[in-house]
Amino acid sequence: MNGEIRLRGFGAFLFLTGFLVFFPVRGEALAGLSVSQSPMFHAASLQDVPLVPEERRSELLHEMRERFFSPWAQTEPRKAKETLEWVFDRYGKGGIFGENLQPRLSSWVEEQRKASRIGAAGELNRCAASVRPSSLRLMPTDEPVFLSPDLPGEGYPFDYLQNSLVHPGEPLFVSHLSEDGLWAWCDTSYASGWMKLHDLAFADRETVEQWTALPLAAVVSENMVFRHEGVSLFRAKVGTLLPLVRKGIAGHVVAAPFRDRDGNLGMRQVSASADDVEPVPLPMTPWKLASAAEEFAGELYGWGGLLGNRDCSAMTRDLLLPFGIWLPRNSAAQAGTGEVIPLDGLSPTEKKSLIAEKGVPFLTLLGMPGHVMLYIGTSRGEPLVLHNMWGIRTERNGKEGRHVVGRNVISTLDLGSDLPDHTPGRLLVDRLNRMALPAGNVPPAE
Question: Which pTM value belongs to this model?
Answer without folding.
Answer: 0.92
